[in-house]
Write a structure and sequence with these properties.
The chain is mainly alpha-helical and 326 residues long. The protein has helices at 3-24, 37-51, 55-68, 97-111, 122-136, 170-178, 184-191, 205-209, 223-232, 256-262, 269-276, 278-289, 291-305, and strands at 198-200, 242-244. Helix content is 48%, strand content 2%. α2 crosses α5 (122-136), α3 (55-68) crosses α5 and α12 crosses α13.
């Protein structure tokens, strides 16, 4: 069998798998078991958001990191006494605690309602919370498909090669997203979540101090922006220090991220590559000038993201405690 045939069969299998996952999820999944679950979660998320803005980017990033490793099953929330869980992988150590706390508090609020106790999965609560923080920061709201179960497995090793790195080129990003059934448009739309994101200085320090080991600034960076980054991220900065990925409207979910890319103000190399590469530049330009087009594509991409590797039937459970298996 030719390599083209094998590629076609693999793609067909992936599409069938995605279609199967979609069929098992539905918007009104909790209609009979916990009919007010969305308003309960939304109220809990709003309370947490009022305490700290970090709730928004932290929860959204947590959802992405969960779905890209083992699927959307809240496995990223499982804790391990021996520090061998997903959350213990170095790339996940930067996940802000406010994201975890948001889901835990929303889960407690749901379980506190008579009839809802132990009826709603942590994975579904995370999916709803991600949608809610987008709306709370000015972004679009949309219906979330529900019906995921929580996974029982979480390993540090499983994170490897499953999450994008800040220095990835477009081809690497596209290949990783495609492995989950996501298109180039999905990749570019989901990257727009960086409009309320944050990053630690270590993730881009080479771009502003030692690009390609030559003691210079990355030429794709806007010079004024590079100097601004050097001021907020000096060479010996505390590694725990983080800055907004969109310094123009850091607390608003909008299309400013794409406008920044047009000006050479993408914080990470992986961000700026979306504009420097011809294959993706047209979509960046579209989203920069048409916020409606961006929001429409973002909703489609978030819905597809939420279908990745879901657990149903005997493959999962509804955890009583989001941080440990039953």
């Amino acid at each position: 069998m030719s390599s083209q045939s094998l590629t076609f069969l693999a793609s067909l299998f992936l599409l069938q798998l995605i279609a199967s996952c979609q069929a098992q999820l539905r918007v009104d999944y909790y209609r009979n078991t916990c009919p007010n679950v969305e308003s309960i979660v939304r109220t809990a998320v709003e309370m947490k958001f009022q305490q700290t803005f970090v709730t928004a980017p932290a929860t959204l990033r947590l959802f992405f990191h969960d779905c890209f490793v083992r699927g959307c099953d809240a496995s990223v929330m499982l804790a391990s006494r021996s520090s061998t869980a997903e959350k213990d992988n170095p790339i996940n150590l930067s996940l802000a605690g406010d994201g975890f706390d948001t889901v835990i508090k929303a889960k407690a609020a749901v379980d506190n309602v008579p009839g809802c106790q132990n009826k709603v999965s942590c994975a579904d609560i995370l999916a709803m919370a991600a949608r809610d923080v987008i709306a709370l920061t000015g972004g679009p709201s949309y219906e979330v498909e529900l019906g995921r179960l929580d996974g029982r497995i979480s390993t540090k090793a499983s994170v490897r090669h499953h999450l994008p790195h800040p220095e990835f080129k477009l081809a690497q990003l596209n290949q990783m997203f495609a492995s989950h059934g996501l298109t180039l448009e999905d990749l570019i739309a989901l990257s727009g979540a960086h409009t309320i994101g944050f990053s630690h200085c270590s993730q881009f320090s080479k771009r502003i101090y030692n690009f390609r080991s030559r003691n210079r600034i990355d030429p794709t960076l806007n010079p004024a922006y590079a100097k601004q980054l050097q001021q907020v991220c000096p060479k010996n900065v505390d590694p725990r220090f983080a800055i907004g990925m969109d310094l123009t409207t850091p607390r608003t979910f909008d299309n400013q991220y794409y406008k920044n890319l047009q000006e050479g103000k993408g914080l990470l190399s992986s961000d700026q590559s979306l504009f420097t590469h011809k294959r993706s530049r047209d979509l960046v330009n579209l989203f920069a000038t048409n916020s409606t087009a961006f929001e429409k594509s973002f909703i489609i991409a978030m819905t597809k993201l939420g279908r990745i590797g879901i657990k149903t039937g005997k493959k999962g459970e509804i955890r009583r405690d989001c941080t440990m298996v039953n």
